[in-house]
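User: I'm putting together notes for a lab meeting next week and I want to include a structural view of one of the chains we've been expressing. I don't have a solved structure, so I'd like a prediction I can at least talk through. The sequence is below, exactly as it appears in our construct file.
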Amino acid sequence: MAALKRACEQELAVHPGQDIEYVVVDDEKSSRDRVAPAHEEIKTYDASYYETQLVRAIESVLLPLGWDRTDIRRRLAETREVELTEFTAARNG
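Assistant: Thanks for the context. Below is the predicted structure for the 93-residue chain, given as structure tokens.
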């Protein structure tokens, strides 16, 4: 909704059902200050927001294998490349 508001403020043509590409620049802010439309020059983005979204996506794949967000964040904090098979081997071995 915030991206839609910004697009309307900039008088961009917006049609029902149209996708509006945007970047979350500060998830702590509200409404239109939270995002920047993709066509604007974006100097920074909210890395924490995107990290949380990625962890949630990873969790949706690995939860059936017994991994939760804590396990995933701990593994990611090790800052090394991990093969997907390591996640299954760690729980099965």
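A couple of points you could mention at the meeting. The mean pLDDT is 84. The first strand starts at residue 22 and ends at 24.

User: Perfect, that's what I needed.
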